[in-house]
Amino acid sequence: KVKFTVRDLDLFYGNFQALKNINMNIEQGKITAFIGPSGCGKSTFLKTLNRMNDLVEGVKINGEVTLDGVDIYKDFDAIMLRSRVGMVFQQPNPFPMSIYDNVAYGPRIHGVKKKSALDEIVEKSLRQAAIWDEVKDKLKKSALAVSGGQQQRICIARTLAIEPEVILMDEPTSALDPISTIKIEDLASELKKNYTIIIVTHNMQQAGRISDKTAFFLTGEVIEYGDTE
Ligand code: ADP
Ligand code: ADP
User: Fold this and answer.
1) Which of 8, 42, 101, 102 is the most exposed place for a label (fewest CB within 10 A)?
2) C-alpha 92: how far from its chain's center?
């Protein structure tokens, strides 16, 4: 099943065209990797899928992006869209608060107040992110006081807690050591059973290890897209 359709997408930062005529169907329940050299538009394209760049000054977008057939630029509120399309960044970026409060942050914004309900979401999300056993005894401690790899899995748990359908990952392992990298890769492979995952990487081996589909970017264009194999 197709999750996103992208039709004739162009994106300009002022006069500079960062994306040129992109057409792509992104499938549900798979891992799609975007690869290509630095500065070729991978991150820009990723952010058009949850509208993280169209509100930036000077950005102009032509074309159409749909999520489950609905135009995300015309028929979605950006905040609502981002609760369905979560994002994980290159640098682990936990909020300067406890591990518990990081994961409870989204559900609280969405109105979950009862402690028992929040406890349940926090545990479930940390388990899904394969970090529960490592942090269950220090949930009240600062999320900044654990390793980078653990911080990244806490950030993934924070995203999972809002129950998105899609998880966008922008080079989620490039700031991490090799062992933490493998943990995140294993986690992504596990999560694709229940989520659609799109991962930006400049690492061909990583794309080969975990993705089902790969798109190659070069200077703002997708020059090849198909089964990773
Ligand atoms: P990649 O993720 O492939 O490294 P990016 O999407 O980050 O590439 O960037 C694509 C191009 O757009 C680059 O030339 C970059 O300098 C430019 N760019 C990215 N963000 C902005 C911005 N906010 N304003 C102007 N130019 C930008
Ligand atoms: P309180 O416990 O008083 O309700 P919060 O849980 O809202 O406070 O915030 C705890 C700390 O996290 C504060 O220092 C706050 O500034 C910081 N913080 C809250 N939201 C964010 C955010 N979105 N990004 C970064 N820091 C945040």
Assistant:
1) 8
2) 12
ipTM higher than threshold 0.85: no
Pick the residue whose CA is nearest to atom 27 on ligand 2. 95
| Residue 138 DSSP label | G
Number of Cβ atoms within 10 Å of the Cβ of 160: 24
Which of 79, 91, 97 most suits a substitution to test ligand 2, by most atoms within 8 Å of the C-beta?
97
Binding site membership of 39 for ligand 1 (Cβ less than 6 Å) = yes
Strand 59-67 to 70-71 pairing: antiparallel
**Which residue in 88, 111, 70, 105 sits closest to 185, CA to CA?**
88
Tell me the pTM. 0.87
CA-wise closest residue to 195 among 162, 172, 170: 162
Closest C-alpha residue for ligand 2 atom 5: 97
Residue identifier of the C-alpha nearest atom 27 of ligand 1: 13
Using an 8 Å Cβ cutoff, are 61 and 141 in contact?
no
pLDDT digits (tens, 9 = 90+) for 85-117: 999 999 999 999 999 999 999 999 999 999 999
